[in-house]
Amino acid sequence: MADAFERAAVRSFDRAVLRSFIRNTRLRSCADLREGPAIFDGRALTSPVCGIVAACYLLRVDATLRDGSARHKVISGMEPFEVSDGQGRILVEPKHALLALARQYQQGGDDQPATSTEVLRLLRGEGAHWVSEITSFTWRESFLEPGERCLVCGSLKVLSYAEGQHRGETVFRPRLVAPERLPLVIADQSREEVLDALLSAEQRMPEG
Q1: pLDDT band with cut points at 50, 70 and 90 for residue 165
Q2: Which residue, of 125, 147, 156, 177, is most buried by count of CB atoms within 10 Å of its CB?
Q3: What is the signed CA dihedral for 153, 98, 9, 47, rounded to 10 degrees?
Q4: Is residue 143 part of a domain?
Q5: SS in 3 state form for the chain?
Q6: 208 within some domain
């Protein structure tokens, strides 16, 4: 399953694999799952289209080209944040993460000049060579905001004294990181909701 999930992390995801991954959170390579509000310590992103302060954002653009074919592109951004699970605060380091964000979002299309220019600029920056062929497009930007309840599934790690010194850290906080050969999963829904939502989620379909 690790090999299949690793392939999925490169381009998109396989819903069946992700569903199984979250459901079986006690796999040998995935140590923990935590739920609670997202807490920011001055390190946050601004989502590129809507300008929302967030730890993570996910932008999907669906476009129609001149020849009638369809293309889409997914652009994401992430910064470290903490999740408070009722027992303490755990640092989340979202490198190599899969985002399942559906609760907070904004959307629009090419008929909105205020955002369409920025969307096209982002597509060019991401190497979407078909931008000049677009005749119409829609976009949807999802984000994880401060205080929003989230679910994080990954490996729980505490730095050793030597590692903490190397990173300049005097307090060795527990942190959730990507398990070996697997991505971290960050969702803005409960565990049960995520399992159902992944069946119809549109944010991370394979790119065309």
Answers
A1: low
A2: 177
A3: -160
A4: yes
A5: CHHHHHHHHHHCCCHHHHHHHHHCCCCCCCCEEEEEEEECCCCCEECCCCCCEECEEEEEEEEEECCCCEEEEEEEEECCEEEECCCCEEEECCCCEEEECCCCEEEEECCCHHHHHHHHHHHHHCCCCCHHHEEEEEEEEEEECCCCEEEEEEEEEECCHHHHHHCCCCCCCEEEECCCCCCEEEECCCHHHHHHHCCCCCCCCCCC
A6: no
Where in the sequence is the domain holding 109, given as residue range(s)?
2-197
Residue type, 175: R
- Tally of domains in the chain: 1
Amino acid at 59: L
Q: What is the pTM of this model?
A: 0.72
Residue 119: the pLDDT is 94
From 34, 9, 33, select the one nearest 95 (Cα to Cα): 9
The reported pLDDT for the residue numbered 134 is 96
**Does a structural domain hold residue 192?**
yes
